[in-house]
Design brief:
The protein has helices spanning about 15-30, 35-45, 50-60, 70-75, 135-145, 185-190, 200-210, 280, 285-295, 305-310, 315-340, 350-355, 355-370, 385-400, 405-410, and strands spanning about 5, 65, 85-90, 95-100, 105-110, 115-125, 150-160, 165, 170-175, 180, 195-200, 220-225, 230-235, 240, 345-350, 380. By secondary structure, it is an alpha/beta fold. It has 3 domains: about 5-90, Arc Repressor Mutant, subunit A; about 95-205 and about 385-410, 2-Layer Sandwich (Nucleotidyltransferase, domain 5); about 215-380, ATPase, nucleotide binding domain (Nucleotidyltransferase, domain 5, 2-Layer Sandwich), CATH 3.30.420. The chain starts with a strand and ends in a 5-residue tail after the last helix.
Length: about 425
């Protein structure tokens, strides 16, 4: 299965045709709104009456809203009846999201444009296995009640690293958290009473980019996530690839090498696959933070303390972060040469925080890529601290924009 976010051709059955037409209208309003119905009809190729029917239903359901104040302003004394522009309604509905990471879980509430209404980080306190989930399952219902602010929460997204099967709702393998065949969707649905969509976090970040990000993402893109887990995702023509069995590929085992005479920090550490030299160990947060502690830069493996050291200008911290940036740049060069996408997006703490480190990644990329003599296609994600919060809700938002009526039919009543 792959997740399609661009409007599909109308299907044969009545219900599917209605959902496909509604998706085309909704996506057009997302991209161009506030926009008049006539303009929606021109952009989608649907008849004016079909657009009007979909808009009426989507307004009633709380997905779209009319903007009469804009019609009056735009009319400017012109003859004829002004057309009421419509826009995505960001006031009545919301989606919740969880990003389940190694050091902490991010809980978020998003509006229908993917804007973060509430975000908080919940420490996992070094737990692994089911101990990560147990307190979260108890806490979630109270959190949802406290933050929704009168909105109807239509679903919960849950994303994490490793191999995730979104069709069966399982986390098949997450080495650092010690999860194997974890029924994540069922556990969260039982705790919250919400429809739950689960996915790998790199795929979810890719969904968010296609929905709300760089225009080139809708042509083709690769997203690389570098954290305690190293993951990548691929999308073509607005569709995020999901290969058998629920993995688009495992970039974490890409062999890496440093520049001549300079070994990669962590390059001799053994991956969970048993081999040394895998990208998942050489570039991971775990390796970076442990190296910082081993050199006395930080008192222990700690993201916040290493970030502080970099911001203070500690040359040892700068050297470690630059070395990892170079490793990532070389890996991305190989990946781009194999896939040749229109866009490469990187989510990595220091490239997002400071453009100097993104410049290191881009320089090493351009030096080693055979297809791309510049790094113009390579960007860092632009949402900063909100990136994982938006990714957490992206599986639900992706379903809503692809199949609005079906998604809302499964949602709780207001």
């Amino acid at each position: 299965m792959s997740t399609t976010l661009l409007p599909r051709p109308a299907a044969r059955t009545g219900d599917d045709r209605r959902d496909a037409n509604a998706a085309a209208v909704l996506r057009t309003v997302l991209d161009h709104g506030p926009v008049a119905r006539s303009r929606v009809a021109a952009l989608t190729g649907l008849s004016a009456s079909a657009v009007s029917r979909q808009v009426v239903d989507l307004v009633r359901l709380g997905v779209l809203r009319e903007r009469p104040e804009l019609a009056a302003a735009r009319a400017g004394g012109a003859l004829g009846r002004p057309q009421l522009p419509v826009a995505v309604d960001t006031d009545r509905l919301a989606v919740a999201g969880l990003h389940l990471g190694v050091p902490y879980t991010t809980f978020a509430l998003l509006d229908l444009r993917g804007r973060v209404l509430h975000r908080q980080e919940i420490s996992n306190r070094g737990r692994t296995g089911f101990a990560v989930l147990r307190p979260l399952l108890e806490r979630l219902p109270r959190l949802l009640t406290a933050v929704r602010g009168g909105r109807t929460v239509v679903g919960l997204g849950a994303v994490t690293g490793g191999t995730v099967d979104p069709e069966r709702g399982l986390t098949l393998r997450h080495g650092p958290l010690g999860w194997t065949d974890l029924p994540l969707r069922d556990l969260l649905a039982d705790a919250t009473g919400l429809p739950v969509q689960v996915d790998n976090h790199a795929r979810a970040l890719t969904l968010a980019e296609i929905l709300f990000g760089h225009p080139a993402a809708r042509r083709s893109m690769v997203h690389l996530f570098v954290g305690h887990v190293v993951d990548a995702a691929l999308a073509v023509a607005g569709t995020v690839h999901l290969g058998p069995p629920s993995a688009a590929g495992d970039l974490g085992h890409l062999p890496v090498a440093g520049p001549p005479g300079r070994p990669v920090p962590g390059g001799d550490a053994r991956c969970h696959c048993g081999r040394p030299g895998c990208l998942s160990t050489a570039a991971s947060d775990t390796t970076l933070f442990e190296a910082a502690a081993a050199e006395g830069i930080t008192p222990g493996p700690d993201r916040a303390r290493l970030v502080d050291a970099v911001r203070r200008g500690d040359p040892r911290a700068d050297r470690l972060v630059r070395a990892r940036a170079g490793t990532i740049g070389r890996a991305l060069a190989l990946l781009a040469d194999v896939v040749n996408p229109d866009l490469l997006v990187l989510t990595e703490t220091f490239a997002v925080l400071d453009p100097r480190y993104l410049d290191v990644v881009r320089a090493e990329f351009a030096r080693h890529s055979h297809l791309h003599r510049s790094a113009d296609l390579l960007i860092a994600q632009t949402r900063g601290a909100d990136a994982l919060a938006v990714a957490a809700g992206a599986p639900v938002l992706g379903e809503l924009y692809a199949r609005p009526f079906r998604t809302l039919a499964a949602a709780p009543a207001p």
